[in-house]
Amino acid sequence: MGLIQAFLSFWRNYANFRGRSNRKAFWGWQFWQALFLLLFLIPITYAVRDFLSSIDADHVELSLGLLETVASSSLPLLLLLVGYALIALLPSLSLAVRRLHDANRSAGWLILNIAVDLGLLGIYLMTRSLSADSALIFASATATIFILLSIGFVYLLLLPSETKHNRFFPTTVAPTTSLNY
Question: pTM of the entire structure?
Answer without folding.
Answer: 0.77
